Structures are given as structure tokens and as C-alpha cells.
Amino acid sequence: MIAEFLNKYQLNQVQRIGVAVSGGADSLALVLMMQEELAPLGKKIIALTVDHKLRPESKDEALYVGRIMKAYKIEHHILTWDGTKPKNGIEEAAREARYNLLADWCKNNDVQVLAVAHQALDQAETFFMRLQRGSGLDGLCGMRPLTSRQGLTIIRPLLSIMPEDLKKYLYNHKIEWVEDPSNQCDDFLRVRVRKFMPQMQENLGISVQRMVETMATLQTTLDYLQNRVGQFIKNHVRVWDNAGYSFSVKNLAFMHEELLFRVLSSLIWNMGKANYKPESSEIKRLMWRLSEDDFKSCTLGGCEIIKQYEQIWIVPELKLKKLPSKQDWDKFTEMHPKYKKLKIPHKLRLSLQKLVPIYR
């Protein structure tokens, strides 16, 4: 199953794969499945356990994972979240800290792929959590089988697998798992949704598997839209090295609202290099402002969006201690003469001078 997943997403050449292992049933089953299936193919499986230090027993649980990994000859490392923990939003903060620790370790140890153990029930819970927050198509598609974060490819091979099957796998291997007490705490929305799921099945006949299938259908629609976005960017957006984007204002007249929304969101996210795309309400407000004749510029998502010379320009929001002089620009255009006679905004000039090396 895991080998087929890697082949489907063209990752079968990857030799070193990290696996996030908490000690829960899902992640323990995943790492052992991967070792069982991939180690004979010559692939190196590395288990990574994050100790968030939020509970007294967390260190012992991490050490317990280490003992299981040793028994199965799997390399294991414990990553610790040190420092002061926030009083509010601890669930989101812990998630960010966890992924940052995992990404940093992988980057420093020549691991390009990290497997995480989200399964079918997690996917169904995600659907309802995002529905409660008013998410659109992107959110309701749930977690994708393959995503990228900080240059790290994150894979989720278990999204169609029920948690009961993973526990059965561990039971057959005579392996006990750790139950996180937070999974029973009603303070967390995910827990409340999980407790509600059996009622959906009993009263409405809506099963977890049916929801996962529906999300897969939505993902097909999303893939089509993303393909349209890619085509527009390829055909109509000019890339100014790594310093900015631009496209003609004339495109605003014929672009479908959904296409414009996604193009702006994608370009701002890529140029601003944020972990998440801007809020949909912010992008929609930007779209409305771009249609106004007196719009000149605004900032969003770490970018500055400029309307000038009949173009929409998207450049990084720069914080320069000292602005380059005219002499600096003249020197830059001597080395890059293609920019010399072009009418481009001052902010793009600054971005080019900061981000494009004078000497290649």
C-alpha cells in the first residue's frame, strides 16, 4: 500500500523518509507498516517523536516509542519543544511548533519526505470543523495526500484507512499504543466533532467513508481549478526573476471572479512566502479595491500590490534600512540591461536590487 502511494505521487526514488510518531495507534501503525513494506526495498525509515512538554508523562511516552523503534530496528529521534508555552491557542501553537521541529530536523539531516498518520476519521472531522468555520472549496476538500511545507514534502498515506484497521494491525503485532488524554477533552472542537460523528451515522446514514469519498470528489474539482490557475499564470503573468509578478489590468474585465480570487491568492502566497494563504475575506476585499479607478496600492500577505502602468504588480513588502539611490539603479541596469528602459514601479526596482544579484 505505501509503495503504491509513493509510486502514484512519483516519490518511489526517495531513499530516506521521516515518519512523525507520537505513540498513538495511528502513527505507530504507520511507521511499522512503512518499515515492513519499504525497508526490504532499501529505503531508510526514520521515526521522529516530538515531546511538546505539555504533560508530565510526555517524556516517558517518547521513550516508550523509542523502545518499540529499537525492537524493530528503526532509527528514532526525540525532538523537544522547549520554552514558554502560550496560555491561549495552545492546540494551534503546538501544531506549529511540531511541524517546525520536524521540518528543521529533516532539513538538517537530508530528509525530503515526512509521513504523517492522518486517517479517514481525521479527514471527516476536518470536513466538519472547516464547515463550522465557513470554509470554501479548498477547506472542505480536507487534508491533501501530498503537501509541501518549508521545502519539505509531507505525505499522508492513510487518509482512506479507518482507525479501527490500524488498531487491528497493532493488535496483531502485539503492540500497545498511547492514548492522549486530550482526545477526550471537550475544550477542543475536534473532540466534540468526533463524539458527534456516530450520530451522523446512526440518524442520517452518513458514514465516515462516505464523507471521505465526497471530499475526494471535491478534490477533483479543486484540481481542475488549480490547473486553470496554473494556465493563467503561465500565459498571462510575467515573473520578474524572483522579485515580483505582474499582469495586465485588462484581464480583470474578463476573468471569472473565482479565477481572479485564486490567481491573486496564489501569487501573494508565493511571493510573500507565508505559511498560509491570506484569508479569503482579505482577497475578496482586494479584488473589490482593484476594480476602483483610484486604487494605487495596498499590502497583504507580506506583499505590496500596486496598480500602475495598466498593470497589477505584486512585490515583496520590503523593509529597507536605506533606499537604493539612482546611482545604485544605474549600476544594476548596467549589469541587467533588460530592465533599463522598462516602465516599472519604484517598489519593483527596490525588490530587484535587493533580490537579484548584480553579478551572476
The share of residues in helices is 40-55%
Q: Given the structure, what is the number of helices?
A: 13
Give the C-level CATH assignment of the largest domain. Answer: Alpha Beta
For the biggest sheet, the summary is:
6 strands, mixed
- Based on helices, strands and strand pairing, what is the structural class? alpha/beta
Tags for this model:
11 strands, Rossmann fold, alpha/beta, five-stranded antiparallel β-sheet, 360 residues, six-stranded mixed β-sheet, globular, single chain, 2 domains
Folded structure, characterized:
The chain is an alpha/beta fold. It folds into 2 domains: 2-213, 3-Layer(aba) Sandwich (Rossmann fold), CATH 3.40.50.620; 237-355. Helix content is 48%, strand content 14%. The protein contains 13 helices and 11 strands. β7 and β8 form a beta hairpin.
Task: Describe how the helices and strands are arranged.
Blueprint: H1 2-8, E1 16-20, H2 25-38, E2 44-51, H3 58-71, E3 75-80, H4 90-108, E4 113-115, H5 120-132, H6 137-140, E5 146-149, E6 152-155, H7 163-172, H8 189-204, H9 208-236, E7 238-239, E8 245-248, H10 257-272, H11 280-290, E9 297-300, E10 303-308, E11 311-316, H12 326-335, H13 346-355
Parallel strand pairs: 1-2, 1-4, 2-3, 4-6
Antiparallel strand pairs: 5-6, 7-8, 8-11, 9-10, 10-11
Helix pairs in contact: 2-7, 5-8, 5-9, 9-10, 10-11
